[in-house]
Each structure stands twice: as structure tokens, then as C-alpha cells.
UniProtKB/TrEMBL annotation:
<feature type="transmembrane region" description="Helical">
    <location>
        <begin position="397"/>
        <end position="419"/>
    </location>
</feature>
<dbReference type="GO" id="GO:0030416">
    <property type="term" value="P:methylamine metabolic process"/>
</dbReference>
<keyword id="KW-0472">Membrane</keyword>
<dbReference type="GO" id="GO:0016020">
    <property type="term" value="C:membrane"/>
</dbReference>
<feature type="transmembrane region" description="Helical">
    <location>
        <begin position="12"/>
        <end position="31"/>
    </location>
</feature>
<feature type="domain" description="Methylamine utilisation protein MauE">
    <location>
        <begin position="14"/>
        <end position="143"/>
    </location>
</feature>
<feature type="transmembrane region" description="Helical">
    <location>
        <begin position="129"/>
        <end position="146"/>
    </location>
</feature>
<feature type="transmembrane region" description="Helical">
    <location>
        <begin position="158"/>
        <end position="176"/>
    </location>
</feature>
<dbReference type="InterPro" id="IPR009908">
    <property type="entry name" value="Methylamine_util_MauE"/>
</dbReference>
<keyword id="KW-1133">Transmembrane helix</keyword>
<dbReference type="Pfam" id="PF07291">
    <property type="entry name" value="MauE"/>
</dbReference>
<feature type="transmembrane region" description="Helical">
    <location>
        <begin position="59"/>
        <end position="83"/>
    </location>
</feature>
<protein>
    <submittedName>
        <fullName>DoxX family protein</fullName>
    </submittedName>
</protein>
<feature type="transmembrane region" description="Helical">
    <location>
        <begin position="90"/>
        <end position="109"/>
    </location>
</feature>
<keyword id="KW-0812">Transmembrane</keyword>
């Protein structure tokens, strides 16, 4: 009796831990899959912090990020359905054995601000992440040890179909969001966000003090300057970064600053308070930007000039790279320099296009989805493109959920029919056997 009770407790504990791990892995893998470039940037931060950037080819952060997010999501689904039990529990345990000491190191030495385990959807401190991983490591050990007690929701004959579909789904989702834009935007520059409001600080709150540092070069010598001692035009821009000088209340947007290249003026407030439309072409590194759709970008600039709208290209690249871009693409639009991390946060495309009005983000497009002359048929005031795009995260999550769940429900339905058919056959054979015995 005692052994039976112990077995029941172990079985319940194993399945509770199994669902805890499944929820964590599914959520973690999903939020990374919908923002593959964001996870790529986080991996790049890790490699830079550990001095390992040169160890890997340039494509590794993106490819590694997509593979890891797919692995996490798939492991979570496998655990949820109780399939591939040896594989899923072993991989879950291996990941937690690797991640737990890593997050302890991050918590102690703080080489990166957060681990990025849940992307931008849920940002945890390094110590919070370590505590979370301790719990998940204990759960992973229990699930691995008692993996034979995990309750299966599908038969062995159907688990391969669910496994293949799960892997296909998560890779398709990642590559779609990479080609377009993340279907869910967890960043402060989402559509509908007012940038000025995102930069505001509540009354009485002490703000953090930031300083823009500009790295300039002259006669082979590089120096750092701030806005207070910005030199004359004989210096060549190399890079810029935002430095935290004093910690305080931190608004969701704290490093949005547009410095026009031709004049050296900060035009941030003028742009964000303009009641008209402004197109912002975002290319965080202009030398790495895709120029395959440059004709469309130039057409939108011509459209902006024709109708009196503002158009700026925002980049963190040095002036010589901007000049090369102009020569290569025939770009005539004005350029502004901005912090590289800010630009990566604004839009997950290089280049990408944003439309704002009075500081509010009305729409965003990836390089592959830039509007053309068939859409820009009139002034923005008179067409749908000039209105704020309506987005609902709940509806988006619902659509993605249905795309994933409906095929699985069909598979489970087939599985149930097969099981019932087998039971009927067994019952029929049993009845026939009983009749023979009589």
C-alpha cells in the first residue's frame, strides 16, 4: 500500500513538473520564434560580452537563434503531449543544466542586462532568471527520472505526425516573421505607441540621466564627444552610443534622439511634434542594409516631397558609409544619426519603414512589404494607408493558435477513431472467443 501511494505521488509530481516545463519551454520558444532578429541581437550581445564574436561565422547568431527557439518550442509541445518522452526529457534536462550555471554567472557579473530567455515579452532581471532556472532544473530532473510515468495524450503511431508538424510550424513562423515583421510586437515602438508619451516621466519621479556619446575621427585619431563639445565638420562620424550616467525612473523609450547629419542639429522634438506625416526609413547599419527594393524607397521619398511630407533615414553608420549608400542607390533624402540599439528596437528590418504623425506610430513595414504606387494613389489623408493600422495582440495570438491547434485537433480526432476501432475489434474478438467456448 505504501509503495502504491508513493507511486501515485511520483506520477502526479512528474506530470505537474512536466506541464510546468512544457509551459515555460513553449512560451520561451514562441516569443523567440516571432522575433528571430531580436534573439539574434541578444546572442550577439552574449558573444560580445564573452569576447567570442570572432569565434563564429556571421550567420551563426541568427541561425543559432532560430534553431534554439524551434528546439525549445518543440520540447515544450512534446512534453505537453507526453510524446518522445526520452528525447524531450533528456533535452530539457541538458538545456537546464547548461542554462542554470550560465544565468548564475550573469547574475553575479552582469555582462548583459537580461538573459533574453523570454525575449521582449517578459524581461526578467538576471537574479530572477537564475531563480526561475533553479525551479525548472528541479522540475527537469524529476521529469527525466520519472519519464515513464508521463501520461501520453496520443498513441505511438500518431506522435511522429505531431512531432513533424510542430517542427514545421515553428520554423515557418520564424521565417515568416524574419521576412516580414514580428506578428507580435513587445517593444515600446509598436504601432499605436506615441513616442513622446513613451519618453515622458511621471510627476515627482527622478529620471535616469543619459548622455549621447559620439565617436569621431580626424587625421586617423578617434575621440569621444558629447552634444556639449561636439566639434566642427572637419571631424568624421564613426559611431554613437547612449551612456547611462545616473539611474532613476526609466521610461519605456529613453534613447530616441535624431541628429540631422547635414546640420548637426537635434531635430527630435520638431519631428515628434509635427502634426503632419513623417516617413522614417530605419537602417541601423546602412552598409548592411538590403538594397533590393531601393526603387520603392526612392519612390516613397518622391511621393513625400510631392505631398509635403517629411522623410528621414535614420542610421548609426558613419558618414562615409552613408555617402557610399547615396552613390549606390541615388538616395536624395536627408539622413539622421541615432543610437544603433534604438534603431534595432524600432523595427526588425534593415531597412524598414515607419510612418508617424504627431509622434504616434501609424504603421511599420519590412523591406519586403514596402507600399508601392498601387497603394499610394492619393494623399495619405485620403487613403487607408494614412490611418493608424488596427492591431490586436489577442486576435493575432488567436489566429496563430488556431493555425497550430486545428491540424493537431484533426490528428487527435483521427487518433481517437483509430483507438475506438481497435477497441471494437478487440471486443468483437472477445465475443467470438466466448461464443466458441460455449
Amino acid at each position: 500500500m505504501k509503495d502504491k501511494n508513493l507511486h501515485i505521488i511520483q506520477k502526479i509530481g512528474a506530470n505537474v513538473c512536466r506541464f510546468l516545463l512544457a509551459a515555460s519551454f513553449i512560451f520561451s520558444g514562441f516569443v523567440k520564434a516571432v522575433d528571430p532578429l531580436g534573439f539574434q541581437y541578444k546572442i550577439q550581445d552574449y558573444l560580445a560580452a564573452f569576447g567570442m564574436t570572432s569565434w563564429f561565422p556571421s550567420f551563426f547568431p541568427l541561425l543559432g537563434g532560430i534553431l534554439l527557439s524551434a528546439a525549445e518550442f518543440s520540447i515544450g509541445i512534446f512534453l505537453f503531449f507526453g510524446i518522445k518522452r526520452t528525447l524531450s526529457t533528456t533535452l530539457a534536462l541538458m538545456l537546464m543544466i547548461f542554462m542554470t550555471p550560465l544565468t548564475l554567472y550573469l547574475a553575479i557579473f552582469d555582462p548583459v542586462s537580461d538573459c533574453g530567455c523570454f525575449g521582449d515579452a517578459w524581461v526578467l532581471t538576471n537574479w530572477e532568471t537564475f531563480a526561475k532556472n533553479i525551479v525548472l532544473l528541479i522540475a527537469a530532473i524529476a521529469v527525466f527520472q520519472w519519464r515513464k510515468m508521463l501520461v501520453r495524450f496520443v498513441t505511438l503511431k500518431m506522435e511522429w505526425l505531431i512531432s513533424l508538424y510542430t517542427i514545421f510550424f515553428v520554423f515557418t513562423l520564424s521565417f515568416y516573421c524574419l521576412d516580414r515583421l514580428p506578428v507580435l510586437d513587445f517593444r515600446p515602438y509598436k504601432i499605436g505607441q506615441n513616442i513622446m508619451q513613451g519618453m515622458s516621466i511621471p510627476d515627482g519621479a527622478k529620471p535616469s540621466v543619459y548622455e549621447s556619446v559620439f565617436i569621431l575621427e580626424k587625421n586617423g585619431e578617434k575621440k569621444e564627444f558629447t552634444l556639449e563639445n561636439y566639434p566642427d565638420s572637419t571631424w568624421t562620424f564613426v559611431d554613437t552610443r547612449t551612456v547611462l550616467k545616473e539611474k532613476g525612473y526609466e521610461p519605456s523609450i529613453h534613447d530616441f534622439s535624431m541628429m540631422e547629419l547635414s546640420t548637426g542639429d537635434d531635430i527630435t522634438e520638431d519631428v515628434l511634434t509635427d502634426m503632419g506625416y513623417t516617413f522614417l526609413l530605419v537602417a541601423h547599419r546602412i552598409e548592411e542594409a538590403d538594397d533590393s527594393n531601393i526603387d520603392l524607397i526612392n519612390e516613397i521619398y518622391d511621393y513625400s516631397v510631392e505631398h509635403g511630407y517629411k522623410f528621414y533615414c535614420l542610421t548609426s553608420s558613419p558618414e562615409e558609409q552613408i555617402e557610399l549608400w547615396k552613390d549606390k542607390t541615388g538616395a536624395e533624402y536627408p539622413f539622421c544619426q541615432m543610437d544603433d540599439i534604438t534603431l534595432k528596437t524600432m523595427i526588425r528590418s534593415n531597412p524598414g519603414l515607419m510612418l508617424i504623425k504627431n509622434g504616434t506610430i501609424l504603421n511599420k513595414w519590412s523591406d519586403e512589404d514596402i507600399p508601392d504606387e498601387y497603394v499610394l494613389t492619393d494623399k495619405l489623408e485620403n487613403i487607408q494607408l494614412g490611418q493608424q493600422k488596427v492591431r490586436s495582440d489577442i486576435h493575432t495570438i488567436g489566429y496563430v493558435f488556431l493555425w497550430f491547434v486545428i491540424p493537431l485537433v484533426l490528428v487527435l480526432g483521427v487518433d481517437i477513431l483509430i483507438i475506438r476501432r481497435r477497441e471494437r475489434k478487440r471486443e468483437k474478438r472477445k465475443q467470438q472467443q466466448e461464443m466458441k467456448e460455449q
